[in-house]
Amino acid sequence: MTNHLMNLRHVPDDEADEIRELFETHNVSYYETPPSRWGISMGGFWVHDNEEAQRARELLQTYQKERLQRQRDAYEEDLAAGRVGGFWHRLRRKPVTTLAACLAIVVILALTIAPFVTL
């Protein structure tokens, strides 16, 4: 019976490459189906054997914990260096696009609420 290990929809290329390398390093006999261009099929990593699936899931779980920690550390470094931030950071860096997005939000909200408000 086939076992679906991981969905590839919205997975960055570097993460998918790292998982392929992980599986190849540990001799996991997997196969891959690509996600469709229009997002209809999810694609993913698969194995046929149940025991192999269990081993691959353990490897994936360890990898995901390590990747999460790496991404958090990178975010903290970027935050400390001033490369990322919240709303005010974005407003200072890109005022026109930020204000345009806020205006769009207000317009959409007004159009959504308008039928329920009687003036």
Write the layout of secondary structure elements.
Layout: E1 3-7, H1 13-25, E2 31-33, E3 44-47, H2 50-81, H3 87-93, H4 95-113
Helix pairs in contact: 3-4
Write a structural description.
- This protein is mainly α.
- The chain folds into two domains: 3-84; 92-118.
- It has four helices and three strands; from the N terminus they run βαββααα.
- The protein has helices spanning 13-25, 50-81, 87-93, 95-113, and strands at residues 3-7, 31-33, 44-47.
- The mean pLDDT is 92.
Keywords:
single chain, about 120 residues, mainly alpha, 2 domains, three-stranded antiparallel sheet, 4 helices, about 60% helix, flat
Kindly estimate the percentage of residues that lie in beta strands according to DSSP: 5-15%
Shape: flat
Poorly predicted runs: none
Q: Could you tell me the number of beta strands?
A: 3
Give the tally of structural domains.
2
Q: Can you give me a brief rundown of this structure?
A:
The chain is mainly α.
